[in-house]
Design brief:
alpha+beta
């Protein structure tokens, strides 16, 4: 885990992986495997494989291996400790691009735009981007926007509605 509580892993690409274009200009090299050390506990590694499934990036395989420091067998209880949604949230932003650039602005840029408010068309465009990214990566869009922009739930809902109406999407 890094200093912000995120679980960061390393990506490995299969020999047959290729860049796949998604809606709204998003793209990523698929299939890809995420290797997360010391998860679900020290002495183990979690492997999550992702591929393009039905219009979204989805998990196709999950495995846990004991490394040479692990002292226990891999049990069903240990497997229940694999936080698939958390690993997906914390890592997929690093491999998905949009129009050849980083898919999302960094957190401070997102917060700066959020502080300007939903009357600014750039905020509405950012909301559309965040929403579509969340859909692509199997996250709850309203919750994703709420967390990224540090908004109360009702405000996130109003801003999403305003973005859809004014920018004619969704």
């Amino acid at each position: 885990m890094d200093n912000e509580g995120m679980t960061i892993g390393a990506f490995e690409y299969a020999a047959n992986s290729q860049v796949i274009g998604f809606s709204s200009g998003f793209e990523a090299r698929m299939p890809v495997r995420l290797v997360v050390p010391d998860q679900p506990q020290p002495g183990y590694k979690t492997f999550l494989e992702y591929d393009y499934l039905g219009g979204k990036i989805g998990v196709t395989s999950v495995s846990v291996l004991r490394d040479n420091l692990g002292t226990e067998e891999v049990t069903s209880e240990l497997l229940r400790g694999v936080r698939i949604a958390e690993h997906t949230r914390d890592n997929l932003e690093r491999i998905v691009t949009r129009f050849g650039k980083q898919a999302l602005p960094n957190d401070s840029e997102i917060l700066t735009q959020a502080s300007i408010g939903a009357k600014d068309p750039r905020t509405l465009a950012l909301i559309e981007t965040l929403y579509k990214f969340a859909e692509l990566t199997h996250q709850r869009p309203a919750k994703f926007i709420q967390e990224k922009m540090q908004l109360p739930p009702a405000t996130a809902g109003r801003w999403i509605k305003a973005s859809k109406q004014k920018l004619n999407w969704g």
